[in-house]
TrEMBL record:
Pfam families: FlaG. InterPro entries: FlaG, FlaG-like_sf. This is Flagellar protein FlaG. It comes from Natronospira bacteriovora. The keyword Signal does not apply.
Length: 94
């Protein structure tokens, strides 16, 4: 009989620990819930989703990335003339 009681205690203790961990994770997640911004890029017409850190307002991720939007802008600018020599996907800094 004793091993059954120990097993029951272990099971209850594990269940209580799991519940506590779930509550703590849920609480921590609410502190770091990212902020989302949805907008339409005027040039390409694409929907842009930007994910910000809630406290620092730092951009965590943007979909589509800035480079893809720049490419879409350049291609639209070029229009029908077909001159691809001016396209640079790499941003250079002096």
């Amino acid at each position: 009989m004793e091993p059954i009681r120990e097993a029951e205690l272990d099971s209850r203790a594990l269940e209580a620990l799991a519940e506590r961990a779930a509550r703590e994770l849920d609480s921590a997640q609410s502190l770091f819930r990212p902020e989302l911004e949805f907008k339409v890029d005027e040039v390409s017409g694409r929907t842009v989703i930007t994910v910000y850190h809630p406290e620092t307002e730092e951009i965590i991720r943007q979909i589509p990335p800035e480079e893809a939007l720049r490419l879409a802008h350049l291609l639209r600018e070029l229009g029908s003339n077909g001159d691809l020599s001016e396209i640079s996907l790499i941003r250079t800094r002096a």
